[in-house]
């Protein structure tokens, strides 16, 4: 899958060069940082299965979801932060994007293919993979393989893939379950923007941003994150 984002990004080359000259590259460069959300318990345990591999027509059934879906009450303080210091500029693309362990050789000189085995994944696998890729810990993050800035800096094209398709054997049931959110990232969803007043009216227990003065922020205030709610296609925002 690929996406292109340009409407919310405006590049001013003159200001960028002035800032670079005034502050130097070390003050401007920011390493890529991922913020990981704790797992969301949204399905009923022991429901759903992958089907019987010996029966061609048995493709399995999806799990039963908790209804209504639980609210995502995560706050910024709840997020786990991981920094990938090797990637700080566009010149680090694509070679340093944290997508996997990269090329590794075993003691016999053979290339190690990490995704071509059928061994059960160890419980600590996601955390061990975190220094190389954040997606196994928080599968709601897109598994970005590549992205291409345009020459004039006005567009960035992202290339992503469904990581859930890497390990799907019968011994990887836990991996398939853990990576379910990867599927949702590849599907269109109808949403509508709402302001902070509407958010607090619908779900007051959700985290709410505050201004520098300590007052509750509104959607229109600078720095306030966008808010969305699921809706029908007819009622969704056109973009």
Task: Describe the secondary-structure layout.
Elements: E1 2-5, H1 13-23, H2 25-28, E2 32-36, E3 80-84, H3 125-129, E4 143-149, E5 156-161, H4 173-178, H5 180-184, E6 191-193, H6 196-202, E7 228-230
Gist?
This protein is of the alpha+beta class and 239 residues long.
Radius of gyration: 21 Å
Flag low-confidence runs: none
Distance between the termini: 18 Å
Shape: globular
Strand order of the largest sheet: 1-5-4
The residue fraction in helices comes out at 10-25%
Instruction: Please state the structural category.
Output: alpha+beta
The count of DSSP E runs of length 2 or more, i.e. the number of strands, is 7
* Separate helix tally: 6
Order of helices and strands: EHHEEHEEHHEHE
Characterise this structure.
By secondary structure, this protein is α+β, with helices and mostly antiparallel strands. The protein has six helices and seven strands, in the order βααββαββααβαβ. The strands form three sheets. Strands 1-5-4 form a three-stranded antiparallel sheet, with no helix packed on it. A two-stranded antiparallel sheet has the order 2-3. The longest helix is centred in the N-terminal third of the chain and has 11 residues, at 13-23. The two termini are 18 Å apart. The mean pLDDT is 82.
């Amino acid at each position: 899958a690929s996406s292109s984002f340009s409407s919310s990004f405006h590049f001013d080359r003159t200001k960028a060069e002035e800032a670079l000259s005034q502050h130097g590259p070390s003050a401007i460069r920011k390493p890529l940082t991922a913020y990981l959300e704790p797992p969301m318990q949204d399905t009923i345990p022991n429901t759903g299965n992958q089907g019987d591999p010996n029966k061609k027509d048995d493709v399995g059934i999806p799990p039963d979801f908790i209804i209504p879906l639980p609210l995502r009450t995560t706050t910024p303080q709840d997020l786990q932060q991981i920094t990938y210091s090797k990637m700080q500029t566009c010149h680090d693309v694509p070679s340093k994007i944290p997508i996997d362990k990269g090329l590794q050789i075993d003691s016999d000189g053979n290339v190690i293919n990490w995704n071509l085995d059928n061994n059960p994944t160890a419980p600590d696998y996601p955390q061990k993979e975190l220094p190389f890729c954040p997606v196994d810990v928080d599968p709601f993050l897109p598994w970005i393989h590549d992205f291409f800035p345009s020459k004039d800096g006005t567009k960035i094209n992202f290339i992503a893939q469904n990581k859930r398709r890497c390990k799907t054997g019968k011994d990887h049931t836990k991996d398939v379950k853990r990576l379910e959110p990867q599927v949702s990232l590849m599907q269109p969803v109808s949403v509508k923007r709402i302001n902070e007043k509407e958010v607090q009216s619908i779900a007051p227990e959700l985290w709410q941003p505050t201004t520098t003065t300590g007052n509750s922020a509104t959607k229109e205030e600078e720095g306030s994150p966008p808010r969305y709610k699921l809706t029908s296609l007819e009622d969704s925002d056109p973009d």
